[in-house]
Amino acid sequence: MTIKLTGRIDSSNAAETEQKINSQIGDFAGELVLDAAELEYISSAGLRIILRLKKANKTTKVINCNSEVYEIFDMTGFTEMMDISKAYRKLSVDGCEVIGEGANGKVYRTDPDTIVKVYKNPDSLDEIHNERELARKAFVMGIPTAIPYDVVQVGDLYGSVFELLNATSFSKLLAETGDYDELAKQSVEILKTIHSTELKPGELPSKKEEAVAWAEYVKPYLPEELGDKLLKLFNEIPDSNFMLHGDYHIKNIMRQGNENLLIDMDTLSVGHPVFELSQMYLAYLGFSETDPDDVMRFLGITRETSEKFWNSSLKYYFEGKDDAFINDAVIKARIIGYVRLLRRTIKRSPDKTDIIDNCKKQLAELVPAVDKLYF
Question: What are phi and psi of 82, to 5 degrees?
C-alpha cells in the first residue's frame, strides 16, 4: 500500500494526519510505502507518527524525499532505523547522442562530461543498485571501470549516471581510425586483467549455471542425440571463480584521456573464459550471420572491420598458441554462442526463423566434431 504525504506535517495537524493514515491502512498487513514526493516539511510530531507506523508494521518505508525532508530524517537517525530514500533527480535524454545499447539498457551522452545508462525495465532500481555494487567491487579488485555516482529518473524509467570526461567508445575510435589491431590489443589487455581476477565462491553469479540453463531450454528444439550431447558438454565445463565481464565488446570500452575504462558492469559473473569468448563472437560476427547490417547498427562498424577486430583479439588473447589451438577454441565458443542465441530468439522473437534455422544448422555441423567445450 502506498500513502502519499503532502504539504507540512507538524503539531498543528499531526493528530488529524495520523487518523487519516490509520483509516487508510485499516487491517492491511503488507508492505507500507509512504511517498514523500509532495511533503515539504515534517516536525518531531510528524516523526513520531512515522515511528509508530514503523513499530506497527516493520516493512514501512519512506520514498521520494526532497533534500530538506531527507536531511530531517537523517539528522534524527531515522535513516539508520528504516528504509528512507531521496527523490530521484529528473533528467531528459531528448536529442542526446546514443553511444551504446544492450539487452538491459541504452547509454546516452548528456553532455561532454557525462553519460547515463537508461534501463529498459521500469522496475529497474534493484538492478541499478546491483550494478553500482558490482562496479565498485570490480574497481576495488583492480578492474579499470567507471563507477556510477547518481541515480536519475528519465520519464518513467531510471538510469545510472557516470562521469566520463570526453570519453570515447572503442567502437567510435575504430570507426574513425580503422586501427583495429592496436585497439584489439588494448581491449585484450583489459580482458586478461578481468580473466585473471579470482573471487571467493559465491561472490558473483556462476556463468556455467546460467549456460547450462540455456542448453536445457533449447534441448527440446534439437534432435535428441544432439540435445543430449550438448547438455552433457555444458555440464562438463569446469567450474571457475575467475571473473567474466559477460557483455564484452567495443561499445562497453571507453577511452578517457590515456586511460581505458569499462562500463556496463551488470553482467559480471565467474566462469571459464570460453563463455566470454562466446558472447564476443556473437557481438562481432554471430549476430550478423543472417543480417550483415546488424553489426553496423549495433557497433557502428562494417562486418569486415568487425571480423578483423575479432581475429586480432584472438591473436593477442591466445598469444603463443598455434592456429589449430585458436581455431578449436573458436569452435567451442561458437557452439556456446549459438545455444545462447537460439534460446534468446525462441523466447523473444520466435518469428525470426532465419536466426533459429542458422543456429540449428551450425550446431548440427559443429557439435559432432568436439568432445569438450573448454580449452
Answer: -155, 170
Q: Where are the alpha helices (DSSP H) in the chain?
A: 14-25, 44-56, 67-75, 78-81, 125-140, 170-177, 180-195, 207-218, 224-235, 273-284, 294-299, 303-317, 323-348, 353-366
- As a whole number of angstroms, the distance between CA 274 and CA 271 comes to 8
C-alpha cell at 13: 495537524
Q: Which amino acid is residue 130, in one-letter code?
A: N
Q: Which residues contact 3 (CB under 8 A, 6 or more apart)?
A: 21, 24, 25, 32, 33, 34, 35
Residue with cell 546491483: 130
What are the Cα distances from residue 239, in Å, to 35, 206, 274, 374? 45, 8, 12, 11
Instruction: Select from 303, 239, 236 the least CA-distant residue to 269.
Output: 239
Residue 99 pLDDT: 79
Write out pLDDT tens, residues 13-70. 999 999 999 999 998 889 999 999 999 999 999 999 999 999 999 999 999 999 899 9
**267: closest CA among 248, 280, 286?**
248
Report d(CA 330, CA 157) in Å as an integer.
38
Q: What pLDDT, in 10s, does the model give residues 334-366? A: 999 999 999 999 999 999 999 999 999 999 999
Contact 35, 3 (CB under 8 A): yes
pTM as predicted: 0.79
Cell of 361: 544448422
What is the sign of the dihedral through the CA atoms of 142, 146, 149 and 155?
negative
Q: How many CA atoms lie within 13 A of 258 on its CB side?
A: 0
